[in-house]
User: Fold this.
Amino acid sequence: RNRGMRTRLGCLSHKSDSYNDFTAILPDKPNRALKRLSTEEATRWADSFDVLLSHKYGLAAFRAFLKTEFSEENLEFWLACEDFKKTRSAAKLASKAQRIFEEFIDVQAPREVNIDFQTRELTRRNMQEPSLSCFDQAQGKVHSLMEKDSYPRFLRSKIYTDLL
Assistant:
């Protein structure tokens, strides 16, 4: 079973389409990673979007898919918010919040996420007194967008179906 998975993943890295180096998405050394990823695990990613996000190889595969669609900023923002919520230092909170805002939320941000005006303005107001929840609404909107839009396309993508 593992040998079959290694073969399928190995073949992906030799194909010449939009994801020509699948091994780049794997979080650690490819040989060890391939031995650990089973078809059953990859199949479980279809159970729910949150199952996919909670699995490190699922997250890596989804990131690779989003790169082919030029929309990886959504996932990067969601991950930045998850990391931000773990901030325990009050001193670091404001600077981390500012960095996330400038990178993903502000108009013309280098990796601007697609959120509505009201959410952007609410987040801007939240930045006046940053807290661990200041990005919650924006993060929720981006999560919902990925779940309803990108995730179903990922499940139909060649990247995912070749793993099964």
Notes: The chain has a mean pLDDT of 84.
